Amino acid sequence: MTTMTEHLFYKTATELSALLEKKEITSVELTKAFIERTKATDDSVKAFLSYDEADALAQAEASDKRRAEGKPLSALDGVPVSLKDNMAVTGQPHTCASKILEHYVSPYDAHITEQLKKAGVVLWGRLNLDEFAMGSSTENSAFQTTANPWDLERIPGGSSGGSAASLAAGQTPLSLGSDTGGSIRQPASLCGIVGMKPTYGLISRYGLAAFASSLDQIGPFAHTIKDVALLLGIIAGHDRRDSTSYKTEIPNYVEALESKKGPWTIGVPKEYFGEGLDPEVKASVEKAIAFYKDQGCTIKEVSIPKLDLALPTYYIIATAEASSNLARYDGIRYTHRSEDTKNAIDVYFKSREEGFSEEVKRRIILGTYVLSSGYYDAYYLKAQKVRTLIREDFMKAFESCDVLITPTTPTTAFKRGEKSADPLQMYLSDIYTISVNLSGLPGLSLPCGYSSEGLPIGLQLIGKPYEEAELLSIAHAFESAHDYSAKHPEL
Amino acid sequence: MAEDKNSIDIDYVANLARIDLSQEEKDRFQKQLGDVLVYFEKLSAVDVEGVEPMAHPFPVYNVLEEDVVEEGFTAEEALMNAKHQRNNQVIVPKVVE
I need a surface site. Which of A335, A377, A439, A467 has the fewest CB within 10 A? Predict the structure, then answer.
């Protein structure tokens, strides 16, 4: 472990923004620094599925011109941002790490892409993920396995493993991921960075390849809470093309960080601290709780009695929605089409067989089963009702608390291949994050310590619906009193 | 359908999902998904009498807007990823005999 913030590629987006503003650096210079860092490290990290250097440098030149004319589009004008490869950018690949979309090029921009372009950021590379965001280790990518920059033998988490690993490796100062059951918070935790899943509906899903529509949310990865606040302010907001997009005033999240000071009432749900929680992770989270207590916060034990039902509920709902969403990849219009077909129906069967890898097939089969005639009531409808009960548990806890504090993951990053043979064990690594998606709440993970092996440990903070400003403030209070965000892996 | 309630009739479901599976995949899924279904049994004991099912975390009801004509994709854009095409149409194998 070493501190390398003196390197340009480990500066925060806020610092880079200030350097650009003071004309101490150009966007072309810093974009080149990230390109070089990526080339120097990505043979071992394998975070990127693709990137276009010339395009990134052209965007950087345009940004420098705007800044020279005194007309930057936002604080992040000229700062690189990389996207998980399940978000649409016109003219760029959009593979979802699946062979079925290996040669697909997007004809349009996602809502978040439009927002980022309006802010003048440099859209840098396309980041690896578990195929269609289905997984917790990024081992399910059809193209490559991403490594954890803290220990290349270990997984970076998933499904947004590329987004987290690239940030931790200094290959991009900001990235976006998507979180259906923990796919932002879990890799952020395992890679020692900050990752946030906002409230369901805060960020438009238009242009995000759908996995489980009632659970999916896009969110930012960054080195600091302030950087997350900066990026969130750019991508949040109503969009009529997503019918679940929520109409709400978007506050200035960066200003809110300093203005909201607490003291807060912090709920500790006892169910998160039971069996299966690694003692080192537990000790780090308890130290964080003690910190808040020292700051004058009220610590309150609360209960989420239905928490043990979250995992089965999640896997019924997520696979059911996935089986329906992935029906569009049919081999006909824009996907891979099998050459080995006898008739039209065969195109579906063979193209999907050849295009999807094993985990995706497994989930489509499970999802199709729970929705099939005779099983719908017992599984899908039942799960939707239990989902209501889980959300009620959380809303009851929030009657007396401002925020809930938990570990993000039960353990630190596991070794590659360790859980890939047993889907159920892999699913259990999301045990602390999925209930937040089921309940639609905002949640974030930030670093709160390191294990004796030097692996990062993450703290999860769960907020009230659409209270991102407060959630970020509470996280900022912890972060500014510690130096975890300045620590980076040696690569 | 298979008799055992924790056993999936893989052939039947794979047909519904329009996916060909290898024999190896079928055997593996049979076992793995059987385990997952046992895990799902946790839900069967929960009393959900009178509980409303939740389709979305927040109540968003019908979202309506004016029916206004807008620019969409051109035929070229819409078909830019269709490998088999002619005259702005997607070619498929013969469907009607």
Answer: A377
Which residue, among A62, A71, A81, A79, has the nearest Cα to A17 in the 3D structure? A79
Q: Tell me which chain A residues have a C-beta less than 8 angstroms from the C-beta of B17.
A: 323, 352, 364-365, 368
Q: What is the ipTM of this complex?
A: 0.93
Based on the residue annotation, tell me whether A136 is a catalytic residue of this protein.
no
Active site residue A183: yes
Beta-carbon contacts of B50 under 8 Å, excluding residues fewer than 6 positions away, are none
Please confirm, yes or no, whether A159 is among the known catalytic residues: yes
Q: How far apart are CA A230 and CA A221, in angstroms?
A: 11
Which sign does the torsion angle of CA A105, A111, A116, A117 carry?
A: positive
Q: Which CATH class is domain A2-260+450-456+468-488?
A: alpha beta
Name the token pair of A421: 């043979």
**Partners of residue B75 in chain A, C-beta under 8 Å:** none
Query: What does the domain layout of chain A look like in residue ranges?
Result: 2-260+450-456+468-488
DSSP conformation class of A272: G
- The secondary element (H helix, E strand) that includes residue A81 is strand A80-84
Question: Would you place residue A259 in the very low, low, confident or very high pLDDT band (cuts 50, 70, 90)?
Answer: confident
Confidence grade of residue A3 (pLDDT, cut at 50, 70, 90): very low
Mean pLDDT of chain A: 96
